[in-house]
Amino acid sequence: MSTDRQQLRLRISKKIYGVTAGGHTSVYKSTSGYELSEKRPFQISDNPKAVDVVSTITRDNWLVKVKNPDKGANIFMSWDVSGSHEFGPLGKNKLQFMSELSELLITVCVGGGNRVATICHTEVIEHFTPLTTNRFLLEESSGFIKEGVFKRKGTNLNISVREIIECANTSGQKPDLVFLVSDFLTQNFEKKLRALAQEVDCIALVLRELVEEKFPALSGTMAVRDLETGKIFYASGLTNLYGDLSAWFKKNQITHVFMDTSRPVLENLDHLAQALEDNFD
Questions:
Q1: Mean pLDDT of the residues in the chain
Q2: In the prediction, which pLDDT does 24 show?
Q3: What is the rounded distance in angstroms from the CA atom of residue 281 to the CA atom of residue 274?
Q4: Strands, E assignment, 36-176
Q5: 209-245 exposure pattern, b = at least 16 Cβ within 10 A, e = fewer
Q6: Residues of the chain with pLDDT > 90: what percent?
Q7: Is the Cα dihedral 267, 272, 273, 274 positive or negative?
Q8: pTM of the full predicted structure?
Q9: Which class for 72: exposed (0-12), middle (13-18), buried (19 or more C-beta within 10 A)?
Q10: Which of 5, 16, 145, 148 is the residue whose CA sits 20 to 30 A from 102?
Q11: Packing angle, helices 157-171 and 190-199, rounded to 10
Q12: Three-class SS of residue 135?
């Protein structure tokens, strides 16, 4: 993983910890002690006070700490807002959870020169806010999710992935980080998402209901109706939807975090912050 990607992930992680703890955030140091500045060999023209003593004593040459101002990043957020997410047997339903999550995720990503775009999709693009630094424009998406204005029950993650790729190609503003928020129970998204993840740092936030984790033991296969979409599919007694999904993300080196919709959003954000710091090459 490149240094720029690491620094962007760490800045967001630090801001998440600041939000969940109610504290002040810094763009230069994460809670795990990662320096977000760069170091280079000492030059004659440098101020001796700039020498990083801790790093220098472990090496043969003097190192100087260089504080880099935020360059700003292009961050895309894809929200699966299909009406099927109104179903929720435990705690909040997925749309309610997503509404709160979107407000907090926008809060931690805006600032430092970052430009953020939001895409709300069902089986079509329902709402799109192009890259902007204006938090109020971005929060329109949260408002639409909260109000439940999107009624289509079908969903197509490929539509959103294609929109991100087209934006990058037409505007020349390549995404630095993409958040994809969905339960990922839709089919046939793997090819396009794999292609996107090969070019862009992607993070999948998987909305999970505990009752969806496993089907009960069955003999053979049986037809099952999805109460969210009304569609019929066939499941076996060994079906483990999220276990299979996790294995696919790992195989394709895509960071993924399961967001338990029966737990507080802030608790889930803590898990995201940890994942942002853990997944370095």
A1: 77
A2: 38
A3: 15
A4: 38-41, 63-66, 74-80, 115-121, 125-132
A5: beebeeeeeeeeeeeeeeebbeeeeeeeeebebbeeb
A6: 29
A7: positive
A8: 0.73
A9: middle
A10: 5
A11: 30
A12: helix
Residues 165 and 224 in one domain: yes
Residues paired with residue 234 on neighbouring β-strands, in sequence order: 223
pLDDT band per the 50, 70, 90 thresholds, residue 262: confident
Examine the domain organization and report whether 59 and 111 are in the same domain. Answer: no
Residues 75-97, mean pLDDT to the nearest whole number: 76
> Which residues, in sequence order, are CB contacts of 115 under 8 Å at separation 6+?
72, 73, 74, 75, 131, 132, 133, 173
Tens of pLDDT, residue by residue over 135-176, are 888 888 888 887 777 777 788 999 999 999 998 888 778 899
Tokens 């999970």 found at: 208
Q: Count structural domains, the chain.
A: 2
Residue range of the domain that includes 25: 3-66
Express each pLDDT in 11-28 by its tens digit.
Answer: 888 888 777 666 433 333
Q: Give me the DSSP letters along 11-28.
A: HHHHHHHHHHHT----SS
Greater pLDDT, 228 or 107: 107
Are residues 172 and 102 part of one domain? yes
What SS3 class is residue 265? Answer: helix
155 within 8 A of 188, measured Cβ to Cβ: no
Block residue for tokens 């600041």: 18
